[in-house]
Fold:
Amino acid sequence: MEILGIDVGGSGIKGAIVDPRKGKLLSDRYRIPTPSPATPASVIETIEAIITYFDWQGPVGCGFPAAVKDEIVKTASNIDNSWIGVNASAQIEKETGCPTHLVNDVDAAGYAEAEFGAGKGRLGTIFVAAFGTGIGTALFHNQQLVPNTELGHLPMHGMVAEDYAANSVREKNSLSWEEWGGRVNEYLQLIEALFWPDIIIIGGGVSKKFSNFSSYLHLDTAIVPAKSRNHAGIIGAAIAASAKQDA
Structure:
């Protein structure tokens, strides 16, 4: 079975055709900048454009930057507040005719890494942290997902963690890799103290630059970059949609 995986991010919306049983892209990735403001109408129009680009008529898996429960968007940190309470899957299906399954974006990336990437075959606790526009997280224990953790919103220094240590903060404030790596280290030390994971997987676009800041991370826990790099969200969204179809 092939599934169109779509990853809705704070800066870009990306899609590709995926083989969810092998965890591999079957097409090139196609990316469109995330509209601003990222309202339901504008984001769904962008998703529709990606579906049209691939001339796609089958199932769609969509990773989304929010807590998602029963296809309904529950939070909105890097998208417009008007998303809250929207059944996004139903809206996308209505506009495109494609059966759609929505999942938190970093939960999706976590599926890809747990099944095919840095967490493959690992028992114990896996923690995924994706540093991008915000900080998204995923938590697995013995390969079972604890959904919608959204731990980028933990308090740090009188603000939420993602306002202190997201990659967008590094770019906006022109922080050196050492300065930003120190902030990431602080955040991950907090995660380590709360959850004692067996491995921490760094995701998001910055995973490609892991060597630039890895020397500033000092934890007892093993820390590795995501093997799928920033394709993880696309692959994982397709895996989640495939599992829903098989259920």
Q: What stands out?
A: The helical segments are 40-53, 88-96, 105-116, 162-165, 167-172, 177-195, 210-213, 232-246. Residues 177-195 form the longest helix (19 residues). Residues 3-107+231-246 form a domain with the Nucleotidyltransferase; domain 5 fold (CATH 3.30.420.40).
